[in-house]
Amino acid sequence: MQRIWRSGIGWDDVLLERDYAKWVDYLDEVRKLSQLRIPRCYALRSSKIELHVFGDASEHAYAAVAYWRAVRPDGTVHLALVAGKSRVAPNKVMSIPRLELQAALLACRLATNIQKEHGIATERRVLWCDSKTVLRWIRSDPRAYKPFVAHRLAELDERSDRNEWRWVNSADNPADDATRADCDLERWLNGPTFLLRNEDAWPIDNDVVDERVADDEVKGESINVVCTTHTGDVIDVTRFSSWTRLVRTYARVLYFIRRLRKQQQPRGHSPRGSSLRALDVMLTDDWLRVGGRLRRSPTLSFDEKHPIILDGRDHAVRLLVEHYHRRAGHANHEAVVNIIRERFWITRLRPTVKKVANACRLCRVRRAQPVTPKMADLPGGRLAFRQRPFTHTGVDYFGPLEVTVGRRREKRWAALFTCLTTRAVHMEVASSLSADSMIMALRRFMARRGQPDTLYSDHGTNFVGAAAELSRARLEIEERMSDEATTRAIRWLRIPPHAPHMGGSWERLVRSIKVALSATLHTRAPKDEVLHTLLLEAEFVVNSRPLTHISVLPSDPTALTPNHFLLGSAAGRWQPGHFDTSEECSRKQWRASQALAEMFWQRWLREYLPTLQRRHKWTEGRPPIKVGDAVVITDPALPRNTWPRGIVERVYPGIDGQVRVVDIRTAHGRLRRPTARLAVLPTEVESSHAPTGGGLLTAELRPPCAAVAASAD
Q1: Residues 432-457: pLDDT tens digits?
Q2: Are strands 408-419 and 425-430 parallel, antiparallel or unpaired?
Q3: In 126-216, which residue ranges form alpha helices assigned H by DSSP?
Q4: What contacts 676, CB < 8 A, 6 or more positions away?
Q5: Do you know which PANTHER family this protein is assigned to (predicted)?
Q6: Could you give the 3-state DSSP secondary structure of residue 577?
Q7: N or C, where is the chain less crowded by C-beta within 10 Å?
Q8: Between these two residues, 22 and 77, which has the higher pLDDT value?
Q9: Of residues 198, 197, 124, 138, the one with CA closest to residue 167
Q10: Does this model's pTM top 0.70?
Q11: For the chain, what is the radius of gyration of the CA atoms?
Q12: Top-level CATH class of 280-367?
């Protein structure tokens, strides 16, 4: 069948004549199986039972057969066929020793399965093989051979013991019958005759093996010989981290060389196609210099007319560039290039200067900028559906605003409460920054709008006012407000200090109130009553702003505004729909009011909520800040040239894994800051470019670029 398959014939094709004859012979052999009779009973009435398994291979197939050998009390021996297996040789051509190894592995597996399934206690097990090459492999270390042989030898070591293997002559091997067409069926069924005799008469291995065949599977040994030729400089410049120290060493070496040889000044020539060919290179005092066209200049010095040519890829040249980079005060690249060009002509000068500057620790610290993490998902209060307005509220103060009381002027602050869901605002006037004044404003708000479930605010540092007043009142406000919220079962959440971007929901509305107030407040210090009236009018104007796109089509409804949820219409002048005044059934009136509210919420869900899906900035994830990072706090509220540094001690990752708030240990205590205000300092730099005179956190720092402060706003 394998020969027919190799011919490439299809399933529906007619067989060739030679293949057809073989196929007919095969069918005749299969029909003879009906006449085959094998005893099912082993007849092992003995106390000494042995298992003998034979394996053999040819170029066409390999097979294994197993027999029970029972020695009876009267000394007679009984053999019983247990099982047999055969396999055709693979299509890929394989050597006879490898096929013999496959047969040995098949015999070992067969013996293991027979003992596992029968459960007959055997005195010993003998595995027979007629290949002395395979027997030598089995008795050797598997690691010394190629993978094909090594893998199978390793399995043989696991399944059998080396002492179980014995050699048998091919003429006495019953497994040989299954690998050839002319088989001895009698020997296959009854076993080899030598097993009926004593063990002294069994075949003996005289350990004669073909060394050439056995060594073909041994792994080759390779010896790597590395020849190195010193073609570099006498001085290893990579051992130096300072240009000054390198120059002094070179000077001593050159002084010694010049004393040993005679000085010469030949002219050099650049090869064709070299980038130096246009420079008219000349060799002077063992230095390659630019010949150029400036020889006749009466004012230029010799070094200016003929600068030394250096390779920018060399380590010593990079030390030179770093030396001038520091002398220039870590200035921009062009300033360093201009200074170096006065004395040296360095190939690839600008890339070299840029690479040195990028490796400079001080420059990396100065250029450090805060990286804002990806914008977080909206809180649940922004997405609350079908809830009373101001259920989730944000509060903030702005001011102070001056008012006239009699003949004196006093300060007032405006307290802004905003609904995070409907974006409506509520204004209250606070007479001071004290905790009592803030609690009174909160109570007036709850009396008119109801008690909120969640109250969001900043950490008290966002009040616009005198710093002295704020510092005295901040701790008192936080303590008293926490007590008031706990008493009224309000969940009070505060954003981290110095993080106004996390309170954008109320910060943006503070600006809108200020714009509306500037249009009506024409006097600098109005009276209390006037200020209160103007704040409420500004509240109404802001609540009348559209939340969605304004359509100009007459068939479309007016744009949705916060006043729709508070008053039922955008300006509070009319009600949508027609209601019969003669209707006196309170149940229908209640249903009408519920239908009106449901219509506004459906419009909010359909028109406004999809506009919150998109992230308008901070769209990419950033590597999070880790514990132990050195950072610089870039707070625009700090005094000029004040850039405190610290070490991150704790991080607060969000649900998405992004770290937006951390705790920092500074020289003046521990602070909690948003990561948008932190610039991570480099902590791993090349030692060859480390600045002298201090470490990373002790070096003088200039403020990062002005874009940091601008982006923080």
Answers
A1: 888 778 888 888 998 898 888 888 88
A2: antiparallel
A3: 132-138, 147-159, 185-190, 211-215
A4: 370, 372, 373, 499, 501, 660, 712
A5: PHD-TYPE DOMAIN-CONTAINING PROTEIN
A6: coil
A7: C
A8: 77
A9: 138
A10: no
A11: 48
A12: mainly alpha
